Amino acid sequence: QVQLVQSGAEVKKPGASVKVSCKASGYTFTSYGISWVRQAPGQGLEWMGWISAYNGNTNYEGRVTMTTDTSTSTAYMELRSLSSDDTAVYYCARLVAHSSSWYPDYWGQGTLVTVSS
Amino acid sequence: QSALTQPASVSGSPGQSITISCTGTSSDVGGYNYVSWYQQHPGKAPKLMIYDVSNRPSGVSNRFSGSKSGNTASLTISGLQAEDEADYYCSSYTSSSLGVFGGGTKLTVL
Predict the structure, then answer these.
(1) Which chain B residues are closer than 8 Å to A100 by Cβ?
(2) B50-80: pLDDT as tens digits
(3) Which of the residues B36, B37, B54, B106 would you substitute to probe the A interface, choosing the one with the greatest number of A C-beta atoms within 10 Å?
(4) Which residues of A touch B103 (CB under 8 A)?
(5) In terms of DSSP bridges, do strands A111-115 and A10-12 run parallel, antiparallel, or are they unpaired?
(6) Which of A110, A109, A107 lies closest to A2 in space, CA to CA?
(7) B102 with B91: CB under 8 angstroms?
């Protein structure tokens, strides 16, 4: 069965960086993308971007860097220059992306990142 | 990219049907058949309910259906059940090759 298992909760100070991992299993990692979504406390979902595990192509903006390690079927999302506004649960989700479909289907359990001085 | 517009809340009694709308622009909802819907219970990860406007993943009840007209997509839940009470989010592919979510709709089963 498809599973995405994310790294544990993090507490960071303002100005620091955080790197969240997402280990995939149960499918061919390079046949799909990985999307990253975050959800601030009590708020809605927010797209952060995505990366193709096939060729490493990415689409994201701002302070984010997304990478993959195909040898371990793991995706990473690094967010720099953290502020309190970045306090949120961060989700990875497998991205189905081809000529006739585009949607995240299976989701990780989420990683809480708390930014506090 | 501005968030898609959803009603903040909807409600219905068990057995009834409800519809949640999701309004975007020609750069997202109206321009592509790549609208998906997610159900989220408190403290849980989102669950895919509808993809590519109207397709239902294996294992999702046929009480859930999706459609689109112009810049507005809709999720309909028929035969409401207590377990359907949750937050629902629409998502669309955009002309920037990124995704965008709606603000979310809280469904209350009375």
Answers:
(1) 52
(2) 999 999 999 999 999 999 999 999 999 999 9
(3) B36
(4) 44
(5) parallel
(6) A107
(7) yes
Number of Cα atoms under 13 Å in the Cβ half of residue B7: 13
Give the number of other Cβ atoms within 10 Å of residue B15's Cβ: 10
A35 pairs with which residues across the strands? A50, A93
With tokens 């100005």, the residue in question is: A15
The pLDDT mean for chain A works out to 96
What would the pLDDT profile of B4-55 be if each residue is shown by its tens digit?
999 999 999 999 999 999 999 999 999 999 999 999 999 999 999 999 999 9
* DSSP for residue B82: G
Count other Cβ atoms within 10 Å, centred on residue A38. 22
Looking up tokens 């519809």 gives B19
Cα distances from A74 to residues A20, A31, A69, A97, A109, in angstroms, run 10, 13, 5, 18, 15
- Contact partners, residue B41, CB within 8 Å, separation at least 6: B86, B87
A-chain CB neighbours of B32 within 8 Å are: 102
Question: Is residue A48 within 8 Å of residue A38, measured between CB atoms?
Answer: yes
Cβ contacts of residue A10 below 8 Å, gap of 6+? Answer: A18, A20, A111, A112, A113, A114
Tokens of residue A23, six digits: 């280990």
